[in-house]
Amino acid sequence: MVSDEGDGVKATLAGLGEFAVIDRLVRDREQPPVVMLGPGDDAAVVLTPDGRTVVSTDMLVEGRHFRLDWSTPRDVGRKAIAQNAADVEAMGATPTAFVVAFGAPGHTSGDDVLALSDGMWEEASRFGAGIVGGDLVAAPQWVISVTVLGDLAGRDPVRLDGARPGDSVAVVGDLGRSAAGYSLLRNAIRDHDELRRSHLTPEVRYGQGRVAADAGATAMTDVSDGLVADLGHIADASGVGIDVARAALAADHDALGEAAAATEQDAWAWVLGGGEDHALVATFPGALPDGWRHIGVVVDGPARVLVDGTPWRGNPGWQSF
Fold it and tell me: 160 with 99: CB under 8 angstroms?
């Protein structure tokens, strides 16, 4: 616990000061073997055994990407790491290290910042990564910027532009759960706890990006914006059409039926247009790896995404602006 000495009153960021907070956040953290030099110097030093580094970055802004009246600081920390790790997984790589910049008002509790850090470390430890540095700054609301480094371990990166007509389209992970959870939270419906948790802390299938790469995936991405929107990125980059079958997504749809009825929403809109599940979707020219399920096929261009052979007329997914 971060607290004022003597009276036990919880300290704020302004009361503690930047370096005291940083010292508490990095104390007693065990870094993975790839980290030669962790927090404490001007920069970290991380090994790159492959000779290449996969790099991605993402931001979470309070009120836009999370709400502190819904999420605990630990939840926010887990989500920040998970969504960045999913981008590296989608390249067929392993996340190894994270750099985190955090902005918050000076009155923010030091305990809340420690809980945020604990959530980040909890999620990173699920795949053996570490948090090697970052920055702390005053801001009018919570803003979290995460940069992730990843290792390809000798594999070629699985890009967006490799899908070819005849490839199978497959997914690993659940679809529509986060969007359903968001709707339940927004409508203050306390049932369906598992769905609400899916929005607060996504469950990424760590390691499946490497499995897909080893199985010959020709293109891959994670479902962050929505299935149709993210398949659209593959279609555009590869110059192909992608036809998704609703029948192959029936289990996702049926799992959301009660929540859809409770919120008067269309479960198909969540499955096809809901984002932040961070399932992985990929195209394969041959047999699918274990755990992946067939949901469609790559067809000749023009670049487009079809659902049962026709354009999807609903919301395709998240828009940043």
Answer: no
